Amino acid sequence: MSNKYHIITFGCQMNEHDSENIGGMLEDMGYENCDDKDNANIVILNTCSIREHADERFYGKLGQLKKKRLGDPNYVVAVCGCMMQQEHIVKNMKKKFPWVDIIFGTHNIEEFPRLLQTCMEKRSKVKEILSDRDLVPERLPSSRLYKYKSFVNITYGCNNFCTYCIVPYTRGREKSRSIDSVISEVKFLVADGVKEITYLGQNVNSFEDPDGRDFTDLIYETNKIEGLERIRFMTSHPKDLSDRLIKAYADCDKLCNYIHLPVQSGSTEVLKRMNRKYDRDRYLGIVRKIKEMVPDITISTDIIVGFPGETEENFSDTLDMIKEVKYDSAFTFLYSIRKGTPAGEYDDQIPEKIKHERFDRLLNDINKITADKNREYVGRIEKVLVEGISKNNKSKLVGRTEGFKLVSFFGEANLIGEIISVRIINANTFSLEGEML
Ligand code: 5AD
Ligand code: SF4
Description:
Elements: E1 4-9, H1 13-28, E2 32-33, E3 42-47, H2 52-71, E4 76-81, H3 87-96, E5 102-104, H4 112-122, E6 126-128, E7 149-153, E8 155-156, H5 167-170, E9 175-176, H6 179-191, E10 196-200, H7 215-223, E11 230-234, H8 243-251, E12 258-260, H9 268-273, H10 280-293, E13 298-305, H11 312-325, E14 329-334, H12 342-345, H13 352-375, E15 381-389, E16 396-401, E17 406-410, E18 419-427, E19 432-436
Parallel strand pairs: 1-2, 1-3, 3-4, 4-5, 5-6, 7-10, 10-11, 12-13, 13-14, 17-19
Antiparallel strand pairs: 8-9, 15-16, 15-18, 16-17, 18-19
Helix pairs in contact: 7-8, 11-13
Iron/sulfur cluster (SF4) binds at residues 158, 160-162, 165, 167-168, 202-203, 237.
């Protein structure tokens, strides 16, 4: 019987992809993936620091492992990810969870097999956290979540220091891979059946290859890859979005007509205090240009509600913003104090009650806009990459349009992985329903 691993991932796509890499390394060592933490020999928790809620969920999950770990000396518990890059958290872990076997950070995931071996051979606790990395890891093994689509890291870290955000402290300074190495990874993935890739970075727009080539160059190069059908990317920082990239949407047939463009706030005053380096008008100008170049583009965003000092007037600028842009979807977050960030120290924090009340109003408005936008799709024919069987109805399939909209329709499982034409027949707030042509 082979050894089994189970990974619990919190947070963003970057973490999801790190978990795919950790899984790939374990499979190279002969481990098998397992859905159940109680039947695994090793459990890895990949943590997220972005908001307090993620911290709390992690501690809850970790607590559930204590009994089994203390009763079974061969059970290994490893913890990694963004939370482990914060000193006060690691200190607290040692005090409250001394039974955790391995702790490592975001800058050395490729060292995990060695750390695991040391832990097993010496039967000792292992902790290895680096404060940054010199070189970016190239091509780690990966146990992909999906056979037909894949994430590809192109940059690591972030230099932007938005005043609310912990990421520059947990993921270190921004570093880019070389275009040649990214392209060879994509070619390898395509040969392995991948049709859609999503380039990942905290700010893909500031990607810079060691030869000085930029993100748009990477898109044009990727568009030439035979057999690849779709290119996506996230996340774009509006301050660095170039006109050349907007033009690439028109030139590159594989680049999907979708962009995730976090606005964070519709108020120029708040944006300034967030250190976002664009104002309301500049953001709207970018959106206008994109819509002119790609009339059927779908746009999603991230919005923070209740940033310190946010007045009712500032908040109503955000409500206006979403009506003006007409986002296809928006991820909304209550501002969460992060220790060590500038905004965490601001003394004009917004009371929880006001934050929640604004959050509900925003969500209500966004859901209406999202539903209206989805209704516009009824009657259209969309190309859908079939991803799998619907969780709600086993005789239905689900997939994504080019614009990243989720569509369900009746069909056979042998279509999974195919790109097919679907007529949209019904629209809900968060998904579409269609019929195959
Ligand atoms: N509080 C609330 N939301 C945050 N985000 C980042 N930091 C915080 C925080 N301290 C949100 C931003 C970002 C998304 C990934 O998470 O909107 O774009
Ligand atoms: Fe955080 Fe801003 Fe960097 Fe995004 S760009 S990871 S919000 S600091």
